[in-house]
Amino acid sequence: MKIIDQSNSYYKSKKTNAKKQSESKQKTEEVRMSDVLISGDYVSNGERKLRVLKELGGGGQGNVYLVTDNGEQFALKWYNKQSSTTEQYHAIEMLVEKGAPSDKFVWPLAIVEGESKDNFGYIMPVIDTKRYTKLSHYFSGEIKSKRFEPIIDACIRMAHGFYELHLSGLCYRDISFGNLFVDFENGEVKICDNDNVTFDNLTSSEDIWGTHGFMAPEVVRGEKPPSSQTDLFSLSVVLFRMLHLQHPLQGQKEYDIEIVDYDALVDLYGHNPIFIYDPIDETNRPVKGKKDMAQAYWPYYPNFIKERFIEAFTSGLHDPNQRIVESIWVKELATLRASLMYCYNCGEQLFYDKTRLSYADHCPKCGSVVDTLPPRMKIGDKIVMLNHDTVLYNSQISNLDPMDYEKPYLKVEVHPRHPEVWGIRNLSDDVWRYELNDESIKEVFKEGIIPIKDGLEIYFGNQIGQLKTGTKLAIKK
């Protein structure tokens, strides 16, 4: 009997376990069909039926998959049950209806559902990861750029992208390096995770939304909800990090933190934030040899761009109304790009700064004195460099539209047989005019060239450019 009892007990246990395993398998299958998709699954929105090809990545809200419909591929963000809320559904529905502010945004195209109605997702364009790199890889040093042009161009396009977003009445809420992709060959950008986007009229500050280090101080403190004004702060952080490879608030104060917990972060970014180059408060300067990446860049940027960052992280740190708007960043960054020049000793890229011409400046790479300036041109109150490889764009010549930075206006060319002879080629549709020695007026149409001669004045539509040839400076050392 004992053996039979044991056998019955074993049989009952085995039967019970089988039932539990079956139930567990069913639950797992339900979870898989709702929270997780695998290759071969289908999702649809009524008009399209898309087949899942593979998983691309995951996060707290769900996973991202590569899907296809008749050979056309999309990325699918598939929310887990916890994130598949009615509020989230309506938020994505609104974004789909409004459409992308520009092609810089990897925007939701359509909402899709699977077999289970407990979950949903949305499809969006696929980011070409062979071309675009997540900005976090640049900050970590995995990606390096040998030239400043693509970095500055990416900064310009980011500022313009968020200008376009805010112009449509929306705010992003979570600008950070995890949501930005850059083509480091030409500076083009892609802004992803756009389910963060909402109307710029939030009133509740109950939910802290954002990434520490990028959130505006008032959001960190829980006083204000995200808005276009808090986006401006986050944008300034991204731009500073792009140009300096260091966070604008991470210096001595962060280095001294023994335990980096929530309270420490709230103090550093919310209650007592101090710019590492605050002109008055020096308590948070970069730490030599430990937290000093910015020191390799900050001293060499022109004063005008440093003044903008000081404004962004002093008065703009505490007063949202004093933050630098996107159009100003675009204008200043375009001027920064036009300030690029070279060290004639080693070829390192430098920046022209008229405020430093009276004393010796040194190349950060070779250490030689920078005492030779390239040809240049004064347009209004701006001075632009005319290096052998300079290309200037509409916004750098005209004051009419600072956002018109994509169309090339002119480029410098060196005579192939006489390298001492330089000229500027007209790439625009404008007719240029300048005065010859006999006081007659010469017109230069598209693709025409004007030689770079000292003192020559060129009429570019509504602007006058005054040329100056290369100069050897008499610097007091």
List the helices and strands and how they pair.
Elements: H1 2-34, E1 42-44, E2 49-58, E3 62-69, E4 72-79, H2 86-98, E5 110-113, E6 120-124, E7 133-134, H3 135-139, H4 149-167, E8 170-171, E9 180-182, E10 189-191, E11 198-199, H5 217-220, H6 228-244, H7 252-255, H8 262-271, H9 303-312, H10 315-318, H11 326-337, E12 340-342, E13 349-351, E14 372-373, E15 376-379, E16 382-385, E17 391-393, H12 394-397, E18 408-414, E19 422-426, E20 432-435, E21 441-444, E22 449-451, E23 457-460, E24 463-468, E25 471-472
Antiparallel strand pairs: 1-2, 2-3, 3-4, 4-6, 5-6, 7-9, 8-11, 9-10, 12-13, 14-25, 15-16, 15-24, 17-18, 18-19, 19-22, 20-21, 20-23, 23-24
Organism: Fusibacter bizertensis
Protein name: Protein kinase domain-containing protein
Keywords: ATP-binding, Kinase, Nucleotide-binding, Serine/threonine-protein kinase, Transferase
